[in-house]
Amino acid sequence: MQRKGISSSMSFEEEEEDEDEYSSSSSQLNSNTRPSSATSKKSIREAASALSPTAPEPSAEVEVQDLEEFAQRPAPQGITIKCRISRDKKGMDRGMYPTYFLHLDREDGKKVFLLAGRKRKKSKTSNYLISVDPTDLSRGGDSYIGKLRSNLMGTKFTVYDNGVNPQKASSSTLEGGTLRQELAAVCYETNVLGFKGPRKMTVIVPGMNMVHERVCIRPRNEHETLLARWQNKNTESIIELQNKTPVWNDDTQSYVLNFHGRVTQASVKNFQIIHGNDPDYIVMQFGRVAEDVFTMDYNYPLCALQAFSIALSSFDSKLACE
Fold first, then answer.
1. pTM of this prediction?
2. Which member of 79, 182, 199, 247 has the lowest number of beta carbons within 10 Å of its beta carbon?
């Protein structure tokens, strides 16, 4: 039974054990299976085709040498990258503009810094700069790796890398491939219960190619963006994800999700992201463990920059009012 991964489905102590079941069920797929896109019939679990029958390794095994490269590299298949976000509100304007720090959670208890993010002050819409240097959160710095920007309503967000905005690009830039990439888009919807019930999130990310690399999406105009492709149902090279719907619990009189011990405090911001074809494969989960501390775990096909940006949008969304 253990070899078939059956025993692991009975244990909810650790996330790795729970995911053993997923890796076992997909181990028979060969490594050339095309990863899931929004239109494919295979689920993301099946797309993560190179999973072995053994339990996924903890994130302690993940080596971080080049921060920028690691932050943009999709999580290895079969490994859950476990992270922690801390929110710093200290200082003159940190109450309004806190800084968020992402660290890798290691099994030995040590934390490895990955990314920092902070909201820009003089911006018409919510605009977060993301950096690989916790002391340098400037737009022109060498450490600037990407940004998260919202619409005026604060309900739709787009994640960019540090490339050039096409509206400000010269013709040589357009040809040279230094245009910015869109790495993710997040949409929040109010629900029929108003602001009290669980909110609906849709996450759109670029698809993966045959060798499990992210497809480059560099829009030259507003019709080529991730949001436009999704709204126009042009889903050829994108993956559509959504949050897992919480279940109402009569005992606690609240909506609940099973975070397998990784989240300890109730919050409307807590969420799990899944693919519609495979609700058991948790692509990402995020939730509160203390006043200003949150856990953030992600799996293939997301990278740290995508997951951190999705989490930042959750802090900011106008629908996230508690």
1. 0.77
2. 247
- The candidate with the shortest Cα–Cα distance to 76, out of 303, 300, 306, is 300
Q: Is the pLDDT of residue 321 over 90?
A: no
Give residue for tokens 């045959």. Answer: 210
Task: Return left, alpha or beta for 228; rule: phi > 0 is left, psi -120 to 50 is alpha, else beta.
Answer: alpha
Evaluate the CA torsion angle 18, 23, 24, 25 in order and state its sign: positive
Sorted by where each starts, the structural domains of the chain and their CATH numbers stand as: 69-242+260-315 (3.20.90.10)
Q: How far apart are CA 67 and CA 143, in angstroms?
A: 10
User: Quick one: three-class SS letters along the chain?
Assistant: CCCCCCHHHHCCCCHHHHHHHHHHHHCCCCCCCCCCCCCCCCCHHHHCCCCCCCCCCCHHHCCCCCHHHHHHCCCCCCCCEEEEEEEECCCCCCCCCCEEEEEEECCCCCEEEEEEEEECCCCCCCEEEEECCCCCCCCCCCCEEEEEEECCCCCEEEEEECCECHHHCCHHHHHHCCECCEEEEEEEECECCECCCCCEEEEEEECECCCCCECCCCCCCHHHCHHHHHHCCCCCCEEEEEECCCEEECCCCEEECCCCCCCCECCCCCEEEEECCECCCCCEEEEEEECCEEEEEECCCCCHHHHHHHHHHHHHCHHHCC
Of 15, 22, 14, 40, give the one whose Cα is nearest residue 279: 22
Say how far apart CA 85 and CA 105 lie, in whole Å: 10
Residue 85 has a pLDDT of 96
Average pLDDT (218-234) is 91
